[in-house]
Amino acid sequence: MKQFFKMAFASALGFFIxxxxxxxxxxxxxxxxxxxxxxxxxxxxxxxxLHLKLEGEIVERSKExxxxxxxxxxxVGRLGLDDILxxxxxxxxxxxxxxxxxxxxIPIAGMATVEEIRNRLKEFKKSGKFVVAYADQxxxxxxxxxxxxxxxxxxxxxxxxFRGIGGQPVxxxxxxxxxxxxMQIFKVGTYKSAVEPFIQEKxxxxxxxxxxxxxxxxxxHLLKEISVNRKIPVEKxxxxxxxxxxxxxxxxxxxxxxxxxxxxxxxxxxxxKKLAHSDAKEEKGLVEISDMVKAESQESQYEDxxxxxxxxxxxxxxxxxxxxxxxxSRDLMDVKGDSSVKAVVFRVNSPGGSAYGSEQIWHVxxxxxxxxxxxxxxxxxxxxxxxxxxxxxxxxxxxxxxLTGSIGIFGMFPNVEKLTEKLGLTxxxxxxxxxxxTPSINRPMRADEKALFQGYINEGYKLFVGRCAAxxxxxxxxxxxxxxxxxxxxxxxxxxxLVDKLGGIQTALELAAQKxxxxxxxxxxxxxxxxxxxxxFSDMQDDASDVLAKFYFGENLKYYKVLQNxxxxxxxxxxxxxxxxxx
Length: 583
Prior knowledge:
8-stranded mixed β-sheet, 7-stranded parallel β-sheet, 45% helix
């Protein structure tokens, strides 16, 4: 008994000490985080270089998260496009910043996002300051962005991925057949290809034609821009791509003028400090993005504002990172009621989603238009539901590489009858009326049920086309001619009347101010970013699930996301294909 009490006491004491250590550690980390929050301003030093370290996923907006640097090794990395653009703007106006170091660590970003950064760097270079790019290995999008730099540095044993654009959509039909699941499809639009992975084993001819068309347009745009910056004819660039430059020695990249100098990462600062006329050590001479964002702004304060309202992600997918139509509608109505906001830039980066949710957001944008102009700025995607919520705006601005259009509707309902038979499950049915158990996933749909749902989808498509026609102030026949679920690049969308101007967020801001007859104004972003405590508790759940999903699925995480969306989707969908990997 005495031995038992000794062991019990020792266990209790150990638990008590462990608890104290954990609590103390939490208090320490919390104090460090608070201290980081309190340092709200940052002062640059003479002859500094802005370090644009592009690593992890680049999303529309950054999050307020003082714990990110502390636990960076355990977190899925994210950069906010808003912070990147803000850092470049401030660096251009800051006399202490001599140039920018573009440091690539295989970032994840869409083509229009890359275009947005690239165009802002073009403006930066007009100040006479330098831009130098370095990577151990340039992915294709990285290389396109890097070509805006004055000098492209490459590791002596590094590589440049330059081989053209290709897409490899994944198809689930055979897997569903093995499971005994049949997807019952209802759609309008010859090119509405989001349903194809669930009912076919390869792309339809129409879908293959449209994908070939838009990836060719994107590739030709990239070639044209690279040709101008690197002074290499387009014909030669295509010839180099056909050699598969990813597998070629770095010396060949120098020979072909795709890069300017071979250098090891450890020697990059020695190269930069000469350009910056600096004698500082690397860590003191480089200014990080997060610090530059906190640098004092040189902007004057005005009463009038132009609001940027962000709408990023799938519409009503149930994803914390996506668009909640109810919440976004409330935020938009707040902007409408704010008398200091004279114009709105609606930043849309969405492949679409719920047709119902899209209609709710469309209505609010229409209401705001009655009292102040709304200009849409399209990101990587503003297609299907993303175009639905954009069409009532005063004007639409897109990047040449934005994917938009996809005006079409579909619905999918699984029939798991064969699966339940395999599991030994049977079902019976009682009802008072003909459609009382419609839809049922335990049996195939009857002909009258299919007719009912197809009629519902047809009406949704008719409404969608009507909304677009009214928003663009054209006849429905004109929209019909470019609809049918067809996906267009921003460059092509101008030619067919779906977009008004090529450009990024800054172009949209200038256009919105012009429509509101504003000369002096400040820019304010909505919805407001979450508070410190809100971010902590939301991130604890979101980041944990992201990390776990990435750990278990690795490269196949994208396929898991596709199947996950099936559980959340509403009956009528207006969205791009669930997954298309453009490389």
